[in-house]
Design a protein that fits this description.
- This protein has 583 residues and is an alpha/beta fold.
- Helices cover 28% and strands 20% of the residues.
- Strands 8-9-20-21-22-19-25 form a seven-stranded mixed sheet. The protein has a six-stranded parallel sheet with strand order 1-11-4-3-15-26, covered by helices on one side.
- A hairpin with a 5-residue loop joins strand 13 and strand 14.
């Protein structure tokens, strides 16, 4: 995967290129979509970030914390702050969120698949296709085992063992880290791609999608290309080949896709005009329905050394609106807090809104972080709850006309009372878990849960106000210490912006296939379903295309490449004879 011959920096791209499909965003959905479409069409992927194999140190489980809190200008994780005062990140790397996340791999719940109207057999086969490359059974060690046993002990039943499926009770899910601790991302799925027909440009920032004018020939505006810039700021263009089946496909994520729609003239007309953007289609639902599953947690110091682990065990209570997950290891537990403490002033200046955290509060928070981090014998982990859904939502608006600038996003955490009740239920489960006998050996007996609550209130986990009552009220604790688990979604939702085939309503030649189309977050963690969706929709799209003439493409394919491992899945007679390769 580190030596794909079709992956290049955008600086080497010619001024004008032509392809059957232009995919904007080589992320969690974009990579499997491109790999699939390349079996029967020419595909261009434009990724604004770099390579997960060459440009960043993100391949090992121990680097998760430092990666997610990296605030450098060209990091794989681009920091943004929601209007709610919560720190967040968006991926800026080939592979998308799968290159920077905690790695948990678990399917959507069956109800999610049915509500989406997906073909259940194709969904199963698409999950299998993804899992053959990037999913593994984790090695469960003492911290994760203790949390698993405690979940069962407090009644999160039944125990389901290891499974990718979403089932009520306690289970061990999959992971994209192999048994050596190496990360496998959606970019690995490009090993399935046909190098004859796919091209990936890195550091290629798309500024807008090009549309034809509505008229006699085109009853609706039609996407026909894009404008993008390379790392040197040189502007280039990519156009669709002249075929009504060819399309531009947005897979830029829940922030990038609605943002780029607006920058291209599709969105609320008044908002677009206020930024001087020509309105292609007045679509007030673009940017609406933005939701982020609230996460709250407790850090639990341990008297004994524990393994570095990310999410492996999950509790899915059948009678609660929440999920319980855990991670362990000093490097993870403090890296995010150290980063927030270290770069607080930078975050504060970026937010553009006042913080209720006084200088005294910040000084105390930084002292707390440093005091714990300085104790090299201290180990521990975090136990967190994530609210299902959620029901609360907000919106996304442009801050500027630059695609490199973060948009303004409001998630309205806990606006719906049911979400707040779910958080309280989850925090009570966490407290019961910490007090369970099976977890006793991994916590300090003399350290009460109240001390853990007070610790969280002293950490600069967000820019939200702190209230005196938050130390005794779980409701206020949830509101004051809410964080993201990076499962935000919405902005181009199915039934509002795109149809059931993910075509943008009101224009031709444009689809959106990523988490921005979701009405809620699938299962405990969405990445498996987002990767599956890329494969699923790629397969569906190919079903209507004529076969590729492989003989015509023969001359573009150096003989030495035929011995490369990424071609092992392509039948030789299909390469030579022109038969259609089955999706």
């Amino acid at each position: 995967a580190q030596h794909f011959p079709f992956v290049h920096d955008a600086t080497v791209a010619p001024p004008v290129v032509y392809f059957d499909y232009i995919i904007i965003g080589g992320g969690t959905a974009g990579c499997p979509l491109a790999a699939t479409l390349s079996q029967n069409a020419t595909v261009l992927v434009l990724e604004r970030g770099g390579s997960p194999y060459r440009d960043f140190n993100i391949t090992n489980v121990g680097n998760f914390g430092s990666t997610i809190s990296d605030t450098s200008p060209h990091s794989a994780s681009q920091i943004f702050i929601s209007e709610d005062g919560v720190y967040n990140t968006r991926a800026r790397v080939l592979g998308g969120g799968s290159a920077i996340n905690a790695g948990f791999y678990s399917h959507a719940e069956p109800e999610f698949v049915r509500d989406a109207g997906w073909d259940e057999d194709l969904v199963r086969r698409s999950y299998d296709w993804v899992e053959s490359k990037v999913a593994f059974e984790p090695q469960v060690k003492q911290w994760q085992s203790a949390v698993r046993d405690a979940l069962v002990e407090i009644g999160v039943l039944p125990y389901n063992g290891f499974t990718y499926n979403h089932v009520d009770g306690t289970k061990i899910g999959g992971t994209i880290f192999d048994d050596q601790g190496h990360r496998h991302t959606a970019a690995d799925l490009l090993e399935y791609a046909n190098p004859l027909t796919v091209k990936v440009y890195l550091h290629a920032t798309v500024s807008r999608i090009l549309f034809t004018n509505k008229g006699r020939q085109w009853p609706k505006p039609r996407a026909y290309g894009v404008v993008f810039e390379d790392a040197l700021g040189i502007r280039k263009r990519a156009f669709l080949r002249p075929n009504p089946q060819n399309e531009v496909i947005l897979t830029a994520g829940a922030l990038g896709s609605p943002q780029l729609m607006m920058l291209s003239g599709i969105g609320p007309a008044l908002h677009l005009k206020s930024h001087g953007i020509h309105v292609v289609l007045d679509q007030p639902n673009v940017g609406q329905g933005m939701a982020d599953n609230p996460m709250n947690l407790l850090y639990v110091p341990s008297p004994v050394p524990v393994e570095i682990s990310l999410i492996q065990v999950v509790g899915i209570p059948s009678n609660q609106n929440t999920y319980i997950e855990t991670a362990s290891g000093l490097s993870f537990a403090y890296s995010w807090a150290q980063g927030f403490a270290r770069d607080y002033v930078t975050f504060f200046n970026q937010s553009g809104k006042p913080s209720s955290l006084t200088a005294e509060t910040m000084a105390r928070a930084i002292d707390t972080v440093h005091a714990y981090a300085a104790n090299t014998s201290l180990k521990g982990g975090v136990i967190l709850e994530k609210v299902r859904g959620p029901l609360s939502s907000g919106d996304l608006k442009l801050r500027s006309r630059s695609p490199r600038d973060n948009p303004a996003v409001t998630f309205n955490y806990f606006k719906d009372p049911q979400d707040l009740r779910g958080c309280v239920e989850g925090m009570r489960s966490i407290i019961n878990l910490i007090n369970a006998p099976s977890f006793a050996r991994l916590r300090y007996a003399h350290l009460p849960v109240q001390a853990l609550v007070d610790l969280m209130l002293n950490l600069p986990v967000n820019l939200r106000p702190r209230h005196v009552s938050s130390s005794i009220s779980l409701e206020q604790f949830c509101i004051d210490t809410v964080m993201t688990i990076w499962h935000y979604h919405g902005g181009c939702q199915v039934g509002k912006v795109v149809d059931q085939d993910y075509r943008v309503v009101g224009v031709d030649g444009l689809r959106v296939i990523d988490g921005s189309t979701f009405l809620k977050s699938p299962g405990t963690n969405p990445q498996a379903t987002v990767m599956m969706l890329g494969r699923y929709m790629g397969t569906r799209i190919l079903q209507g295309r004529p076969p590729v003439n492989w003989r015509r493409l023969q001359g573009r394919f150096p003989a030495s490449w035929r011995r490369r491992p990424w071609l092992s899945h392509i039948p030789r007679k299909n390469m030579q004879g022109g038969e259609k390769i089955k999706p």
